[in-house]
Target: Acetate kinase
Amino acid sequence: MKILVINTGSSSIKYQLFDMEHEKALAIGIAEKIGEVTGRLTHKVPVDDGMPRKRVMDGPIKDHREGMNRISALLVDQVLGVIRDKSEIAAVGHRVVHGGEAFQAPTIINEAVIAEIKKNTPLAPLHNPPNLVGIEVARAIFPGIPQVAVFDTAFHHTMPRHAYLYALPYDLYQKEGVRRYGFHGTSHAYVSERAAEHLGKGLDSLNMITIHLGNGASIAAIEKGRCIDTSMGMTPLEGLVMGTRAGDLDPALPFFLSRHLKMNLDQIDGLLNKQSGLKGICGTNDMREVLERRKSGDDRAEAALDIYTYRIKKYIGAYIAVLGIVDAIVFTGGIGENAPIVRELSCHGLTGFGISIDREKNNAVSYDIREISAADSNIKVLVVPTNEELKIAQETKKVVTF
Ligand code: ADP
Model:
C-alpha cells in the first residue's frame, strides 16, 4: 500500500510518498516560496546505501494547485518517478494543525469535516487555512482517493480538565473554546511508541516525559500512553523557549507593550511569535549558530542557551510532579536529536530526581534511537529521532483499512 503524506503551509507543500509494506519513504520533497518569483521544487528519491537521486527546479510556482500538480507529475515522472500511475496511491494523509475539541483522532475528510476544520480557524489562523488549501487541491488532483486529516492536537485530547482549562471566566471555554489544546501531538505520540518498543515494554506500562525541540518546542507528560499535560496551549506560543517564540511570560506583558510602547496587537503578536525566543535574546533562531557563538565566548548566546535549557528543566521537574513516577525522558526534534549540550544542561542537577546522563553516550554521534542515561539513572533518558510524516502515514493507513 502506498500513502502520500502532505503538509501544506502558507507558501509551501512538503510531501512524502510511503511504501507502507516496508514503512519506507519512496519520494520526499518540498515546493517552497509558492506565489513568489523565487519558487523552488525539490524532489528526492532515497536510494538504499547511497546518495538520494534528486532534482531541484527553480522558478515561480503560481499557487498551491500548480505546486500539487507538479508534485503529482514528479511522482510518475519517467526518470524520477516512483509509481506508474497516481491510482497506485491508496490514500492521502494531511497534517492539520488544529482539530479543536471536535477531532480526537485521524478522520476521513468529507464536506462536514472540512466545515468543522474551518470552524477551528480562529484558534489557528496561520495554520488551518493553508492546511485547508492543501486538502482542497489534493482532493481535486487525486479524485476518488481517500483523504485523511491527522491533527497535531489530537494526541493531547486525553488531558484532564485541570490540565487543559485556564483560570479564566468559564464562558470563554464554553462559548469560544478557549483552553489548552497542545501541538506536536504526532511527534510526541510517535517517539513515545518508539521509546516503549526500544525499552521492550508496553506503552501502557510506562510513564514518560517527551521533549520535542525543533524550531517550535513542546514537552508532554504521558501516563501509560495517554497525554496528561503539555506545554503548548491554546496556541503554540505557550511553554518552552523556542527559535522565535517567547514561550511562558507574564500575561500582563502585552499591556505594558501596548500602553507604554504604544505597540498595536499585530506588532505584539509579531514580537512574541517571530522576534523572541533564541532570536530575541541573541539574534539567531538557529541553535547550531547559538552553540557556535557561545563556544567563541558570546555572552548573549550563552544567556540564550541557559534560558532555553533552564525552562526545559523546570518543565521536567513539573511533569515529574504531575506523573509521580517517570520511567523515561525522551528528547527529539532537530535540537533534541542533535545537540548534546542542550540535553546535558536540561538534565543537569536532576540526579536527586533519579536522572543522570552518561556524558560519553550523550556526546556520541548517532542518527538512531539510543539511550544516553548513566547505568545508575533510575529514569532512562533516550534520544528518539522523530518521524511525523511516517506517523501520519501510519495513522492514515489505520483509518482507511479499518
Ligand atoms: P522544524 O521544527 O522546522 O521541523 P527541526 O526539528 O528540523 O525544525 O529543528 C530545527 C532546529 O534544529 C534548528 O534550531 C537547528 O539549528 C537545530 N539543529 C539541527 N541540527 C543541529 C545540530 N547538529 N546541532 C544543534 N542544533 C541543530
Notes: The chain has a mean pLDDT of 96. Residues 299-323 form the longest helix (25 residues).
